[in-house]
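We treat protein structure as text, and this decision shapes the records that our systems exchange. Because each token names a local backbone shape, the row as a whole describes the fold. For reference, a complete record is included directly beneath this paragraph.
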Amino acid sequence: MDKEHYSRTISSAVEFFEGYGTLAVILNVSVDDLRRWAEGKSYPPAEVLRRIAALAKRPETAPLRRLS
């Protein structure tokens, strides 16, 4: 895979989690590293990519329904 693919994947995750800070905490990485990977300036470790992929595969929670 190329840096552009990694960059898109990470950028999508950043958007989903509404910011670099939240995703960095979830992944236990620095915001600076996350930004470099999202900008395509360097490659993230394979373990980080696996964790992002796992987060992306988590099922959406069903909408809350009123109990009657």
